[in-house]
From TrEMBL, chain A:
Main location: cytoplasm
Biological source species: Piscibacillus salipiscarius
InterPro entries reported in the protein's UniProt record: ACP, ACP-like_sf, PP-bd_ACP
Family assignment from sequence similarity: Belongs to the acyl carrier protein (ACP) family.
Post-translational modification (record): 4'-phosphopantetheine is transferred from CoA to a specific serine of apo-ACP by AcpS. This modification is essential for activity because fatty acids are bound in thioester linkage to the sulfhydryl of the prosthetic group.
Protein's UniProt name: Acyl carrier protein
This protein's UniProt keywords: Cytoplasm, Fatty acid biosynthesis, Fatty acid metabolism, Lipid biosynthesis, Lipid metabolism, Phosphopantetheine, Phosphoprotein
Pathway it works in: Lipid metabolism; fatty acid biosynthesis
Location of the protein in the cell: Cytoplasm
Carrier domain span: 2-77
Amino acid sequence: MADVFDKVKEIIVERLDVDEAKVTMEASFKDDLEADSLDVVELVMELEDEFDMEISDEDAEKIQTVGDAVNYINSNQ
Amino acid sequence: MNNAGITRDNLLMRMKEDEFDDVIDTNLKGVFNCVKAVTRPMMKQRGGKIVNVASVVGVTGNPGQTNYVAAKAGVIGMTKSVAKELAARNINVNAVAPGFITTDMTDALSDEAKQGMHDMIPLNRLGEPEDVARVVRFLASEDSDYITGQTIHVDGGMVM
């Protein structure tokens, strides 16, 4: 669990160029991390590669917070 | 570069739904599918060039080609939308709109029809495939880095 969160955080910090402290489980990509819709699509792509999984467009649309991403990865790996 | 295209010409009143769908599927949806497929690697590498082949009839309309014209006009609109979506990732998306080009399709026309074409073309000749290819090459090269969302007519001045 912690491993997944750390890895996701690392990717977010690098991709969105945000302060590590802002990346909490509750943080919303769009509202708190200032990601636009294309950023989110790109993040999901990167998570797919990193965790070697495929996230359907339908599921991807539901991922709005860091926690959503971490939980999705944990329950689908 | 998205170039696949077919024709199923018929007057609107005689056009079957199949003839409409076939052309839309290949000429418009085919471009959508290919663009979607290349977008992922291009986003990752933070850059890329997409060139779609439209047609001047997508701008002017053409009797007997409701399906083909709808698809080609669709390609021009799609080019603009995708260009706006991907501009932030340094991906250029442009279209070329060829006019009358010497191909098997135009070779089959009568001399009279060919003369009719010449009269419509200010540069007074049909285009060669190379005329189109050179513009595609330009749009795929760094020489066109500051051009996106455009449709370049390669038609000897036929449509201005």
